Amino acid sequence: MKRDLTGHYAPSTAGGETVRAFVPAPLPPVPTLDLTGDRQQRLEQAILAVGRLDSVSALLPDPQLFLYAYVRREAVLSSQIEGTQSSLNDLLLFELDEAPGVPFDDVQEVSNYVAALEHGMARLREGFPLCNRLLREMHVQLMAKGRGSDKLPGEFRRSQNWIGGTRPGNAHFVPPPPQEVEGCMAALESFLHADDDGLPTLLRAALAHVQFETIHPFLDGNGRLGRLLIALLLHHGRLLKEPLLYLSLFFKQHRAEYYDRLDRVRSHGDWEAWVDFFLEGVEQTANGAVNTAQRLVALFQADHQRVQAAGSSSALRVLTALHQRPLSSLKSLATASGLSFPTASKAVLALANLDIVQELTGQRRNRVFAYSAYLAILNEDGEALS
To answer: Engineered SS bond to 106: which of 11, 84, 92, 235, CB 3.0-4.6 Å?
Structure first.
């Protein structure tokens, strides 16, 4: 649909030069989205895929087990888009007090992402609205420690930023001038709360993500927070009880197309092409998450049967503890399983003999064990992209 530029340019000064900064028009798009033909069918397929993902939790013995590791997998992938090198194993090791020494800055950034998501979900569950105040609170968590902690956590920027290039004058894109940020974000907040425009939740999430990335309201962390906004909107709109849909992997796999679609929205008003891309990502990602959950259930059942056949009740208890934390120290496993340290040690040895766990440190003390097959399933796509 023909719309041309979806905003206007305003002069802004940064780095001693005056540039044209883009100020987006408020949402929703004018004219309204074209949802005829294949696009309506694509929307329905994406909604069905999200519904299957929401119901898959009924298949899991404990949905929180899947959520714990899946959220951390997402944190790694989302942070990798921003250039970090941390792996899921790095993050899980970082979260073990007994395992110091993993790369600090990158893994701290990933850990901050987990904290931001958990803070946002907790606030929504207690009835707090999805609003700019919540986004600022999450930004505080996102930038709390490590890189970016000096870039005004929780505050909208008061200086000009830019995307790509070495300076504003040769940047790929220049977001709104700082004096426009408050107004742009207020308009976005109004759109998030609108309940009279007839937009399905998935489309609201699609439009809001682009708008947030276009405004780029913070000095740092905009990409990660913009991706988290999608998860929050799907929960807030009651499409998902738990935050199980993350598009970071899809955006990473299709990075060039992702940025091109954002650019085409700004320059040509091509919201429909962005929506097509977004819905394709939602359907693929939801189906992939369902498949991952089903594979994990099958793995847990098969390994339970193997350990049961070996006749070790203590090993079964340790295996259950590994469902909760697939990378754990021996001390943590003893505590989680309710076993004495010597008994837990023997149980872990039994699991190692069955090739269910592997020891990672090679040390005699402070050993760390990984539920290898579990982590392999979660790591598949991330490792293929690293």
So the answer is: 84
